[in-house]
Amino acid sequence: MDAMEALFSRRSIRKYTPEKITEETLREILEAAMSAPSAGNQQPWHFVIINDRKILDAVPSFHPHSLMLREAHVAILVCGDPTLEKHVGYWVQDCAAATENLLVAIHAKGLGAVWLGTYPREERVEGFRKLLGIPDHVIPFSLIPIGYPAESKPPRPDRYNTTRIHHNRW
Ligand SMILES: Cc1cc2nc3c(=O)[nH]c(=O)nc-3n(C[C@H](O)[C@H](O)[C@H](O)COP(=O)(O)O)c2cc1C
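Above: inputs. Below: predicted complex with flavin mononucleotide.
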């Protein structure tokens, strides 16, 4: 799948088959995440791989839009670490770039995933800190449940919107 096809055909997938993901595929997906651009190439991220059923099932108690985790075998929590920053304040953009790379790579590998918003919702950030023993200086940013798709989605409606494009001035 080429890059343009992957970008145009990616959709949020919230239903997964019981088929497991190999370690090799997981590694490839993480390599794609870590290939993302970051401010000054600071790479201020960590990735927590969660495949313990009890932990996955505990997330909906503090994240209200995460019930699809009950079907997922694995999820990746993208975290930001501001102590690794050279350019203060850019960790959010860096983690968003890594998250998008994850989503596109997952789709290109024939898997499905969805971005579960975490930061800046304090109760979700704290929920992950407690559940996973994440240190105070590390900030849970997004959670990505992953699995082989058990739903197929039509190509999304065209989102190209000329009212959002400005030439030379507003
Ligand atoms: C920052 C962010 C937070 C999101 N949070 C959730 C979430 O908590 N639960 C969920 O099911 N989907 C979540 N989504 C997925 C969006 O609902 C989805 O991307 C959007 O509806 C567009 O659909 P598409 O991904 O199929 O193009 C989130 C997406 C983003 C970018």
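The pocket of flavin mononucleotide is lined by residues 11-12, 14, 65, 114-117, 156 (CB under 6 Å).
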